[in-house]
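Report of the visiting student (M.T.), summer placement. My assignment was to run the structure pipeline on a short list of targets and document each run. The first record concerns von Willebrand factor A domain-containing protein 2.
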Amino acid sequence: VMQCSASLDVLFLLDGSYSIGKGSFERSKHFADKLCDALDIRPDRVRVGMVQFSSTPHLEFPLDWYLTKQEVKDRIRRIAFRGGSTETGRALKYVLRKGFPGGRNSSVPEVLIIISDGKSQGSTGMPAMQVKERHITVFAVGIKFPRWEELHVLASEPTDRHVFFAGDADDAANGLYSTLTSSVCSATASGCKVESHPCERRTLETVKELAGNYVCWKGSQQPNTVRASLCPFYRWKRVLIKHPSRCFRTVCPEPCDSQPCQNGGTCVPEGLDRYHCLCPVGYGGDIHCAPKLSLECGVDLLFLLDSLAGVTLEGFLRYKAFLKRFLQAAMGRDSPMNVGVAQYDNDVRVAIAVGQHKDAFSFMKSIDALNFGGGGTLTGRALRYIAQHGFRSTPVFADVQDDLPRVVVLLTDSKSQDPVAEAAKYARDRDLLLIGVGSSFVRAELAEVTGNPKQTIIYSDPQDLFNRIPELQRRICSVDSPEGCQAQSLDLTFAVDASAGVGLENFLRVRDFVRSSHLHFTINRDVTQIALVVYSSKPHTVFALDTHTSNSAFLQAIDHVPFLGDSASAGSALLHIYSDVMTVQKGARPGVNKVVVVLTNGGGMEGAAAPAQQLRDNGILVFVVVIGDAQRDMLLKVAGSPNYLVHISSYEDLEYYRDLIIERICEEAKSPVNLCKPNPCMNQGICVLGPGSYRCECHGWEGPHCENRVLRGDSPRSAVLPPRSRVQHGSGGWQHFSRASWHTKRH
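After the run finished, the structure tokens were exported:
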């Protein structure tokens, strides 16, 4: 942002002598590179040249050779160290004699920047004075451990604005900009100001110090006589000397100075006047991290908090922090929900009645007052008690019929010492929706409590608990929402393991699972298209995306899915899907989300990670459902993320996970898409995005998707297609159809 923009000639004098050394010479080049960032290098603004000096001066490049900043910086990086004695005076005389090589002959201001350790082997005072008498502004920059007295002689007045230290490259570049702004550059940016600040000048000096005394023999006036005496012993020592000084810099107000991010958000500046906020989970309703999880659904919500000894005090405090974070994000002033908190150990008590608080602040004060308990883990007893007494304290209960759905969120990390299945069924039979939140240690028990795996939320570590707040909000508000994604456009491919390792009986269970999924989709050319691939050692397409255009046709086709036997190769199946299923030729629609669901027992996954990544790179989600024991690390590489990996203990339990899997697929159907992923252009055509459309650039081919070879004498053409457009082959050749014509009968 801060650049000196003026008509200006700048010449660097770079010390390349042996006293500097090759290492410090490279630091000098780096510093010169940094200073270029503070200069607006263009032909009509700032021009830059460079002379390296040691025993003799050597012109590295004149001012008129490189006229862009990048060219200058690239040339500086290629300069080689020359070595020699430090003849700074001779270098100044070179400037007096030659002027600024390639410069504009004093028609614009001239600036000389000397980068040296200030240890010249000749006189510099007279030539330095003569250079300044020619109205050349001189900056002296110390490198390594410089001799500051000489640098002050070289620099223009006032020296505190013209002498810098290369070790503090950013401050020195800022100081150069600040000084130039006050004389030749354009004014500082609005709101910026130059300020003075204390700084240090360091150098190494050799000092003489007394090391002690030793016995020595001295002559005497008497002949043939010597006498013993004590003689002082000195030694030379190099000492780091620090000189306090004043430096100048330009300070600009940052957009984050006003702390615009709320609710614990982190402000990240972007230049002088822009910023963005990194918001905690549950916030981000606007750019300043306003709550975004405000529950629009009307529910009576009761948190059942485990305060047993097995949880530990640290875990209990974490649960309280989780509740406060959730309430801050979800409980707005006009929120239609009523919230309460119960806790259990040896006893069960409703600590905060449902609906007692209508604002988050007073609610959080009550949460702070909750105490940690201890004793036995009786989750079953707690569930039965809550089913009978948990919602009786709702204020409207006395005189108004409360018909809001009732939700209980169980927060626990302890296995129960009493049976939970019967008590949980008792609660569910009284129209309570049970949601379980816990670690993988209690996963099985939470599934038993909720009666549905999709109503369990498992966190991997303590911090991950807070990351589950959005998922909890969705679970709470799903109590009355319809299942599936009938209205979402989606291209969906099931890849089913039909190898001998799965077995015929389990394969039929997977087939029934795929069949039952049709209830959640509207299958036609406009909404959801489904393809089915079965695989063992080789893949086989049962039907393509555009084969069936109704739910009934899909059901009829499922009954004819073959069991293949043989060994499994998921990698070849994914490659087949990439090249021969999820393509425009086989019915894939540009502008529509695409998902591949792999149903496997985990066998034959060795070569599947690379093709899965290839699918993801082309905008196709890979969702892995593994049944039985399998190597999680390998499966995770195929899925790409734990969010897209579902592990089921047995094929008998597969049906219970249907809702969870369909919900994840439907979430993906709502995400934004890239019209060029996967590439809709055939025959190596290049997809070019436009505003709400794309076009194919063809080479040797023509047509909307480069589907027709160009005959001799023809010229290739490209067509611009709107999102979700379709190409259909009729009797007259390839044609372009809009979405409205998808129902046209295919020839």
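The two ends are 62 Å apart (CA to CA). The longest strand covers residues 193-219. I thank the supervising group for their guidance throughout the placement.
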